[in-house]
Amino acid sequence: MELRHLRYFVAVAEELSFRRAAERINVTQPSLSEQVRQLEGEIGARLLERDTHHVSLTAAGRSFLESCRRVLREVEDGTRMANRIARGEAGRLSIGFVASLGHALLPAVLRAYREKFPDVELQLHELDTTQQIDALNAHQLDIGFIGLGLPTQEITDLQLDTLREEPLVAVLPKGHALLRHAERAESEPGANDRSRRRIEMLPLSALAKERFLLGARHNAPVYNPWLIVLCQQAGFQPHIVQEAGQPVTVLNYVAAGLGVTILPAQFSRLYSVGLRFIPLAPPVPKYRYCAAWSPQNTHSALVHFRETAQIVAKRMK
Amino acid sequence: MELRHLRYFVAVAEELSFRRAAERINVTQPSLSEQVRQLEGEIGARLLERDTHHVSLTAAGRSFLESCRRVLREVEDGTRMANRIARGEAGRLSIGFVASLGHALLPAVLRAYREKFPDVELQLHELDTTQQIDALNAHQLDIGFIGLGLPTQEITDLQLDTLREEPLVAVLPKGHALLRHAERAESEPGANDRSRRRIEMLPLSALAKERFLLGARHNAPVYNPWLIVLCQQAGFQPHIVQEAGQPVTVLNYVAAGLGVTILPAQFSRLYSVGLRFIPLAPPVPKYRYCAAWSPQNTHSALVHFRETAQIVAKRMK
DNA sequence: TACTGTGATAGGCGAAACCTATCACCGGCG
DNA sequence: CGCCGGTGATAGGTTTCGCCTATCACAGTA
Comparing C-alpha atoms, which of A297, A311, A291 is closest to residue A116? Predict the structure, then answer.
């Protein structure tokens, strides 16, 4: 049985005439009769009652006609859907992202993409960088928004688009010894600009004797080790007194005077009561936010999504 | 696009190998490759990603695979269903019946039929005889259980199975003049059988001077006119004082002494307080209950249903 | 009775689905 | 490192079968 049989039968059932049906589907009447006969033989049931001047559906024919319509509709819909998916106009995208991108960049990208491709379903998964890399390699994720230290940590078999580079800043509690001049400048209205500017940059090595507070390792499995390496390159082994909690929690601890930390600059916008964010002196270490994807992934929607992400990221720079 | 393409594609998608798939569906690998290529061309989308050592589904392919499965399942189910309908093992039967058959015969027939053909849906419609005849001719009904006078009223284009013949009986109120001997016999314990048997039959003509109560004409559009003809053949024009209500209502009126009526014998079982049912003398007019159907109706379930109805009716005789 | 229109039948043609044989490619094994 | 086994793609010949034309048998109509 082939779709041809179904199409022919539907035509006859609708026209209730072999000749008219044959004309409609651009086939001669004998061909049509033969195909319908074949169909009936294969089903093992008479579908049409015909005498020399009348064609009518049998009960089996009525039932089968409905099946045929469903089948033909499904074929058509399935074809159109596959085509749209291939064009990236429909389908589903699995998107991973680190929490720190969930507030500004990601929503903007999603909004822009949805506007262009409203029929692509977006599935979001908040995951840390290493989880995303695993998921991308396992093809459970189509694209991942991740954070990486510079220079590039090697990521096997994945492609990267850099969306944004953030300089790292030192985070100190208000009144910290390293801020003396600045604090005084603020509290003394007569202080000149020079006295404030003096500590607008800190070499990383200035933090050598400080107590470091870092986020929980499972939240930052890439970031924390990278930070330690940076400190080592600056000539000291950081004294890490705590490695726990969300970034916001760490900021609270810093504000409480328990120690210092180092974060990408964007966190200065997040929460600043009792805190001072001081840019690091050159060579300024930079944290990179990237879109990562598997080159094996041929999903067309992915291409459009990546383009959108790059455009939006550039606009927000 | 033909079902062949879908079947081939499903095989490849399931085996993820052209050779294995080709073997499974008894085709050579080049044919299979060609057909899949055609399918992709027609859809306008790559469904399978192939390199020399690996076949995998694209996003479009995954979607289309699901469509294919639905289509093939629907084709199979539709075929099986049509076949079963043609065998009379499934489908739907529209059944009409007059109210007076709804109590005993019809339920017995339905029960027996359902037992043999549980997958045939039975749609019941309580309609009078003429409505059923119209519905049968309009093919809105597959079979009708109707009541007919004897000799056969001509019913164009319909076939009839006689299920049961019922003699007509006169229905009189207790104490009616025509019952004198019987009433006395009942009230006198010493009465012999002869005195009771004397009025166990009434010639129809004995009712010539009686007031007739008939059921509403819209309930008995065949029965009432037929009864009038019978009276005329017995030599009198019946004096009809009322033509209204259900049979039960008419019986109540008779019991109240408003007149007499004539009904098929089965009603004597229905309701008898204050009533006497007296068989009519030969030639006993008989009312026929029939199954009626259109010979144009080729529905196989109908054949089985008719057979069941005849068997059950014979058993209940 | 001739005519028109129906679906069924007969026989030939051609497209296309299929086959066999082979190629190019690559991963794995000795 | 080179051979082998297995992959999908390609080339070209064969056969199937879906299609066509021509015609029939039948019935309802003018």
Answer: A311
Long-range contacts of A112-119 (CB under 8 A, 24+ apart): A112/A308, A112/A311, A112/A312, A113/A304, A113/A305, A113/A308, A113/A309, A116/A304, A116/A308, A117/A88, A117/A89, A117/A301, A117/A304, A119/A84, A119/A89, A119/A90
Size of chain B in residues: 317
Length of chain A: 317
DSSP lists the bridge partners of residue A120 as A91
pLDDT, residue B184, reads 45
> Three-class SS of residue B31?
helix
Torsion of CA B165, B167, B171, B177, to 10 degrees: 180
Are residues A48 and A55 in contact, defined by beta-carbon separation less than 8 angstroms?
Answer: yes
Using CA atoms, how far apart are residues A308 and B183, in angstroms rounded to an integer?
Answer: 103
As a whole number of angstroms, the distance between CA A176 and CA A183 comes to 9
Interface of B with A in 82-121 (CB under 8 A): 82-83, 85-87, 91-92
CB contact under 8 A, A81 and B64: yes
User: At what angle are helices B29-43 and A59-86 packed, to 10 degrees?
Assistant: 80
A37 CA from D24 C1′ (Å): 19
Tokens of B145: 């259980």
Rounded to an integer, the average pLDDT of A255-278 is 77
> H-type helices in chain B, by residue range?
3-15, 18-24, 29-43, 59-87, 105-116, 129-137, 180-187, 193-197, 223-233, 247-255, 300-316
Q: How far is the CA of B55 from the C1' of C29 (A)?
A: 23
* Residue B235 CB burial class (10 angstroms; 0-12, 13-18, ≥19): exposed
Cβ-Cβ contacts under 8 Å, B77 against chain A: 67
The residue with tokens 């970031």 is: A223
Q: Using CA atoms, how far apart are residues A19 and A38, in angstroms rounded to an integer? A: 17
- Whether the pLDDT of residue A254 is over 60: the answer is yes
pLDDT at A194: 44
* C-alpha to C-alpha distance for B35 and B14, rounded to whole angstroms: 16
Whose structure tokens read 């001719």? Answer: B137
What distance in Å separates the CA atoms of residue A87 and residue B45, rounded to the nearest whole number? 8
Give A4's contacts in chain B (Cβ within 8 Å).
Answer: 2
Chain A and chain B share a number of CB contacts under 8 A equal to 128
Say which residue the tokens 């879109």 belong to. A291
Q: Nearest by CB to B85, which of A60, A68, A78? A: A60
Partner residues linked to A172 by β-bridges: A276
What does the pLDDT read at residue B41?
Answer: 94
CB within 8 Å: B45 and A74: no
Q: A289, exposed or middle or buried, with CB in 10 Å at 0-12, 13-18, 19+?
A: buried
Q: Which of A82-96, A224-238, A268-282, B287-301 has the highest mean pLDDT?
A: A82-96
End-to-end CA distance of chain A: 60
Across A180-200, b (16+ Cβ under 10 Å) vs e yields: eebbebeeeeeeeeeeeeebe
pLDDT band at A77 (very low <50, low <70, confident <90, very high): very high
**For residues A85 and B57, what is the distance between their CA atoms, to the nearest angstrom?**
13
Percent of chain B topping pLDDT 70: 88
